Amino acid sequence: MSFTQDIRDAFSRRDNALNQLIILNGLVFVVLVVLRAVLHIAQSDATYELIRRQLELSSSIPVLLRHPWTLLTYALVHEGFLHIIFNMLNLYWFGQLIREYLGDRRLVSLYILGALAGAAFFLLAYNLLPVFRAGIGLPVIGASAAVTAIIVAAATLLPDYTFMLILLGPVKIKWIALVVVLISIAGLNGGNPGGEVTHLGGALLGFLFVRQLKAGRDMGRPVVAVGDWLGNLFSRQPAMKVTHRATVPAGRASAAKASTPAATPAEEVDTILDKISRSGYESLSKEEKQKLFRASQQ
C-alpha cells in the first residue's frame, strides 16, 4: 500500500480524528520544510517567506483583514522539529483522553476553538496592551494554543488521572496542566511573549469548554454544525432506494419486543461499574467510558 493511500485511509475513517489532526500538522510541516529547501537552493528565500506569511497569524489588524484564514492556519505551522514533536506528543497523550470520554467531534471542536481563543488573546494583547504594542506586526505560529486547550480540558475533566513521567513517576494531570499554564505566564516577559499569550487563551478555552459541557452546554456545537455543512456541501447525496419489508403480525411483533427488553440507562451504568470492579477501568471500551461520563452529568 502506498504512502498516499495510507493517508487517504486515515482521513476516510470517521473515528480517527486524533490521528487526522497529527497527520495534518505533519503534512504541513513536511511540505514547508521541502519547499523551503527547494527555494533556498533556487536562491528564492523571499518566495518562501511570502508563502509562509499566507499561513502565519499577524498581530497587525490590517494584515489580518487581508488574510482572515490565518486565524486557523497558524495552528498548523511549526518552526523546527522540536516545536512540532513537542506539540504532537502532547496532542497525542491528552487528546486520547478527550477522544475516549467526549468523542472525536468534540476533540476537533476543542482544537479549533483553542486555536481561535489563542488568536483572540494574541490580537487583543498586541493591539490593546501598551507593553506589547511595540511588537505590532509580529507573527505567531504553532499548534500550542490548541494543544494547551486540550491539556487543560483533559485536566478539568479528569483532574486525578495519572501519567507516568520519566524521572518523576506518577503525576496527576491537574499538576501537569498547572505547570504548563505557569510556564506560559512566566514566559510573557521572555523571548516569545506572543506564543505564551496564545497558550493562555487556549488554556482558558479548555477550562471553559469542559465546565460548560458539564453544565449541559456544548461550546463546540457551532464548529460541528459548520463541519457538517461543509461535509454535505462537498459530498454527493446517495441515490434513494425503495425497499419492501415484510409485514409482521402485530401480536408476533409485540411478543418479539417483550422477549428482548432494552436495558435502562441505570442498568447500563451498573453493568459498567461491575466491569470496573472486576477488570479495572482500563478494560472499558470507548463507548462505555462515554456512557459513564454522560451518566455523571445527570
Topology:
Blueprint: H1 3-12, H2 17-41, H3 45-53, E1 57-58, H4 61-66, H5 70-73, H6 81-102, H7 104-128, H8 130-133, E2 139-140, H9 144-157, E3 162-165, E4 169-172, H10 173-186, H11 193-214, H12 221-234, H13 250-259, H14 265-279, H15 286-297
Antiparallel strand pairs: 1-2, 3-4
Helix pairs in contact: 2-3, 2-6, 6-7, 6-9, 6-15, 7-9, 7-11, 9-10, 9-11, 10-11, 14-15
Membrane topology: Multi-pass membrane protein
Transmembrane segments: 21-42, 71-95, 107-129, 135-158, 165-185, 197-213
Family: Belongs to the peptidase S54 family.
What attributes characterize this protein structure?
298 residues; mainly alpha; Rhomboid-like fold; 2 domains; two-stranded antiparallel sheet; two-stranded antiparallel ribbon; 69% helix; globular; hydrolase; Rhomboid family intramembrane serine protease; DUF6576; transmembrane helix; transmembrane
Give a brief outline of the structure.
The protein is mainly alpha-helical and 298 residues long.
Task: Explain how this protein is built.
The structure is a single chain. The protein has 15 helices and 4 strands. 28% of the residues are buried. The longest helix is centred in the first third of the chain and has 25 residues, at 17-41. The chain has 2 domains: 3-231, Rhomboid-like (Rhomboid-like fold), CATH 1.20.1540.10; 262-298. Strand 3 and strand 4 (169-172) form a beta hairpin. The strands form 2 sheets. A two-stranded antiparallel ribbon has the order 1-2. Strands 3-4 form a two-stranded antiparallel ribbon. It has 298 residues and is mostly helical. The two termini are 46 Å apart. The chain crosses the membrane at residues 21-42, 71-95, 107-129, 135-158, 165-185, 197-213.
